[in-house]
Amino acid sequence: MSAPTDRKFLGRLPLPERRYLADALRTETVGGVLLLVAAVAALVWANTPLSDSYEAVSDFHIGPAALGLDLSIQHWAADGLLAIFFFVAGIELKRELVAGELRDPKAAALPVIAAICGMAAPALVYALVNAVGNGSMDGWAVPTATDIAFALAVLAVIGTSLPSSLRAFLLTLAVVDDLFAILIIAVFFTSDLNFAALGGAVAGLVLFWFLLRKDVRGWYVYVPLALVIWGLMYNSGVHATIAGVAMGLMLRCTTREGEEHSPGEHIEHLVRPLSAGLAVPLFALFSAGVSISGGAIHDVFTQPVTLGVVLGLVVGKAIGIFGGTWLAARFTRAELNPELAWPDVFAVASLAGIGFTVSLLIGELAFAGDAVLTDEVKASVLIGSLIAAVLASVLLKLRVRKYQALVTAEERDEDQDGIPDIYEEDDPEYHLRMAEIYEKKAAEHRERARLAGAPRDGADRPA
Question: Class for domain 18-190+239-411, per CATH?
Fold first, then answer.
């Protein structure tokens, strides 16, 4: 069977990549729905007479103080559980670099440029709004992130199934987005460094890498080591989630002879449900609980900091990703898949304006000394993400019939060999199998007609 040679932008994915994408996004979609439920639960909990209990649980401290880990539940969710999320993000990035869309520099240029523009434009929109309104520039990074799980949850809720090429584009954007979010957190939100703890964390990472290279196996080796690395990284002053990313990037994501899956893909398959189904929803539960009232919503649209976040997510993301994609395609002479149109790219760019998980995290880091402003920024992230979700839903619904037709064509497998027919159309053996199938149908039709005593005229045509 010949491999497809379609190099068009948003063209057909190779079959292994399509299968990996389907499996990864299936888990993310389920996790996204749980994330949505957790966010709603947090808002309800924080805006009812039970709000005092929400604050009491969020602020409850637990952990060994002697190790510098006497943290609140909310703090454990942000620094501890999100390390699992970033560990999976590190594996995704490694896989994209060695086996996915980012492997080929020419193919990677377009989504990377789109992602960079999709982070720069929201930051510029935020900076412009706050320059005009004399607001704080500290939150410039808040609207730069995309939440792939929440975006997929929106697709699940509105019942829209995107073609695999658009989903791959969205996933690649999110992976590159996560990379730059990690760099932003590491560079701009690192407190005073404890070099002894940082040196211990680096030594632990070196040991982690060495054990991987020696093919040492066993969760009982890596899980305790990972916890030690995380604890040292936390105490070093570098945000603890960086430890998760570093360990994810160290995993091997290429297969060797006799391997069906690489170690990275295997571990990702095991850990992704924990990340999407537990870590991220719990983070949302203890981070999204902000007071939402008429006055609070009014403040979101009148204060420069919060208005900058909303406009950054809704306007900056859409314009940045779409504009970056269009310019990159124009200058690299990449042709858009003829089955899709530029409005489809704009719809996906609008969907990327849902910046929930990492935006909430950066908001907490940017305004850590001001609890009131932190809650206001969280509210602006929620409102901006909601507006982006509604806008994207409307745009995607306008093209839903086209998407359904493309998805149906991608999934058609008439010879039932487990390989979609679209990947076999250039294979002579496929046409022989299809001829056999149609002949079998014709024979069954003739036999039914004979038993029913029907005239033979036209009986040779298959049903």
Answer: mainly alpha
